[in-house]
Design brief:
single chain; about 300 residues; alpha/beta; Arc Repressor Mutant, subunit A; D-Maltodextrin-Binding Protein, domain 2; 3 domains; seven-stranded mixed beta sheet; 13 strands
Length: about 300
């Protein structure tokens, strides 16, 4: 584009005020500076936009055409700026959130109703993936990641920490008996993760240290699948509190090997790409979730 918005606005102000002097006064410019701006605009367009006499300014035919188009352009820019201002005050637009299925089901889904009532103009797209994803590739605004972060290109906001516990259903314990020590697990049915294998190192004190590496008889990629298997009495699991709190409260799952369990708190972070102006729909979602999780600890 040859011309600038400032030049268009200067031209419009001269037309609206009827004189270069009045326009310069309103714009806070000198008459000579505004005259040069108009001359520069006509030079760029290679047309005469107005004829100047000692008494008044008169638009040429080309000036009338350009004025109409300039008004449309300036109006569109002002409308766009106004929309951005509205979005800052009333967040709106599509927000894509990605999380592992257990966190989505047990933590985020219960918050959706309240969040939608608070921010009705935000359209939520909730996606689940039990492995770490590339935010750009999956067109994701926010990803919830459990565990230690390694990607330094992302900005992280801590949401909560979660304790890991060794659990089994009452039906399983009645059938197989309750293990009294980590070594007893060798004779039990153990349910673990197919990946990453690091999740199969349970926080139990034993002869080798504070990590007890299990050999699962059943493996799954999702913590929710492991939870369902444990509830069905298929074996013993190690899972985070956020997905098992209700199960423990209603005794559908029972914590075992309590004295041998090392307290391990998994960090839970919301991650997003660094930028200079965080979109309001992202910041309000993070604020809302953080407040809920903070209140739930009280």
């Amino acid at each position: 584009m040859k011309t600038t918005l400032d030049e268009m606005q200067a031209f419009m102000r001269v037309v609206d005020t009827g004189s270069i002097t009045a326009a310069a006064d309103q714009l806070g410019q000198t008459v000579s500076a505004l005259s040069r701006a108009l001359a520069r605009l006509e030079e760029k367009l290679e047309v005469t936009l107005m004829r100047r006499t000692t008494r008044r300014l008169e638009l040429t035919e080309e000036g009338q055409v350009f004025l109409a188009q300039a008004r449309k352009i300036i109006s569109a820019v002002e409308e766009a700026e106004e929309q951005m201002e509205i979005r800052r005050k009333l967040p709106a637009g599509l927000l894509r959130v990605n999380a592992a299925s257990p966190f989505m089901l047990h933590v985020l889904v219960p918050l959706v109703r309240g969040f939608r009532m608070r921010f009705p103009d935000i359209e939520l797209e909730l996606n689940t993936n039990d492995q770490i994803i590339d935010l750009l590739e999956h067109r994701t605004d926010i990803a919830i990641r459990i565990g230690v972060l390694s990607d330094s290109s992302l900005h992280a906001r801590p949401l909560m920490t979660n304790r890991l516990r060794i659990l089994a259903s009452p039906d399983y314990l009645r059938e197989m008996g309750e293990p009294k020590s980590p070594a007893d697990l060798l004779s039990h049915r153990l349910i673990g993760f197919s990946r990453p294998e690091s999740l199969n190192a349970w926080p139990l004190r034993n002869a080798q240290g504070d990590r007890f590496v299990i050999t699962p008889q059943v493996l799954a990629s999702s913590g929710e699948t492991l939870r369902q298997l444990a509830l069905a009495g298929e074996g013993i699991v190690c899972l985070a509190d956020f997905m098992t709190q209700a199960d423990r409260e209603n005794s559908h799952l029972v914590e075992i090997l309590i004295e041998d369990t090392v307290e391990v708190l998994q960090p839970v972070n919301a991650v997003y790409y660094r930028n200079t102006a965080l979109a309001s729909r992202i910041s309000c979602f993070l604020d809302y979730v953080s407040k809920y999780l903070g209140d739930s600890k009280k």
